[in-house]
Amino acid sequence: MDSVGVAAAAPDAGPGPAWQSKCPWGAPNTTSISCSLADVMSEQLAKELQLEEENAAFPEVVAAAEGPFITGENIDTSSDLMLAQMLQMEFDKEYDAQLRREEKKINGDSKVSISFENYRKVHPYDSDSSEDEVDWQDTRHDPYRADKPTTTPRRGFIGKGKDITTKHDEVVCGRKNTARMENFAPEFQVGDGIGMDLKLSNQVFNALKQHAYSEERRSARLHEKKEHSTAEKAVDPKTRLLLYKMVNSGMLETITGCISTGKESVVFHAYGGKSATEDKVIPPECAIKVFKTTLNEFKNRDKYIKDDYRFKDRFSKLNPRKIIRMWAEKEMHNLTRMQNAGIPCPQVVILKKHVLVMSFIGQDQVPAPKLKDVTLSSEDMKKAYYQILNMMQQLYKECNLVHADLSEYNMLWHDGKVWLIDVSQSVEPTHPHGLEFLFRDCRNVSQFFQKGGVAEALNERELFNAVSGLNITADNEVDFQAEIEALEKMNEDHVQNHGKKLSTFSSDGDPPIYDE
């Protein structure tokens, strides 16, 4: 046998295992070629040997890595290793993109920057997707926003010679003013003035700044007014707390809702509960009068209280909001006087700050109609007129009060008789304008019943003399009012000079009699 053929067939017949022919660390089949020490130590040769070993050990992985990763046609889901490497590669890309966003967010426009290059998983790569590189919500720089105007240096000018530009330049100041508008309140819309290269003069900018400041203060006042004041058919938190306490204490069973609104108060209906004391009886139905805590309606009504000697000393010492509580207290005292004199009026239950609880004039949550809204027969109208005349005389002589706002709007018709309400503005006849208020009440009552067809209705001057007991004789209304003002002036001068209150007016037209 030929020795060459035996030598060629020897490896196939060998008893060695099959993996030795594939393993790169197995015994070589051919004799090694001798080389010099310089070739062995070269880096190029080492890289080539490393690549050969990797290709021989992982041929499928390398082939998959060379091709495209994320394509539906080339993904081989049978290889778990390839899928794991693909997922790891995507995770590394997202991690590196997050690092780049953090770098830009931290560095911003700073001259000194930091880098997370050592923490990246994959070498920098070029990506076609802008979403992987930049997230504009996480960066300080907005590419769609115009750059702010550059500031002038400390020396106050830029350029030299004819091209010099100072900080007082009209264009520079205009652009600076436009940029300063961004410091206005968020609710003040300024628009994109920088992008339009808008130039505002100092006069226009100062006017806009003052307007923005005024609007901000106005909105704050409106918000405070809404939070701390009663509104139409609504109450503020403090008033609501007072009502809750009344219900929780058992004084009121429940509050059903609003039944009336006015300029100065809101009236609610409620069912009465049990009183803590046995001597006080709470009516089955109650009316809760909540005085509005806004001062708009009280600007022209302070004359009813500041000149009343009962509250004159306290008026000057209280702030405007506490005057409203005094207004509620005044109505409580006036109702108590009227109730003691037997005049039909609501019964006072309790007063808590600016909340007054009274008996309800009506039935089954339906309030009694006002005299202007009810249609009465001629007999009932005549009966109502004489009843009101009697009540006005009682109010003046027995209660020593003048209603000061008596009209068909403040009189209710219930159970066949007239009831008086809304006496918070009532004053005593010794008030500096007490007789004027009485004459105005007489005019309102006389005009209403004369229009209602009551033939026996007196005119305002006759009614005034009948109620007050004075005998003022004047041919016309002007002279009549002049005499009323003269009486009030005499009373006011006496109070200022002697500090005494006028007890009553004489009925024969002579000067008033004073108590010494």
TrEMBL record:
It catalyses: L-threonyl-[protein] + ATP = O-phospho-L-threonyl-[protein] + ADP + H(+); L-seryl-[protein] + ATP = O-phospho-L-seryl-[protein] + ADP + H(+). GO terms for biological process: defense response to virus; innate immune response; ribosome biogenesis. Pfam families: RIO1. It comes from the Eukaryota. Its cofactor is Mg(2+). One of its GO terms (molecular function) is ATP binding. Keywords: Antiviral defense, ATP-binding, Cytoplasm, Immunity, Innate immunity, Kinase, Magnesium, Metal-binding, Nucleotide-binding, Phosphoprotein, Ribosome biogenesis, Serine/threonine-protein kinase, Transferase. One of its GO terms (cellular component) is cytoplasm. The keyword Transferase applies. Residues 137-148 have a biased composition (Basic and acidic residues). Interacts with CASP10. Interacts with IRF3; RIOK3 probably mediates the interaction of TBK1 with IRF3. Associated with 40S pre-ribosomal particles. Belongs to the protein kinase superfamily. RIO-type Ser/Thr kinase family. This is Serine/threonine-protein kinase RIO3.
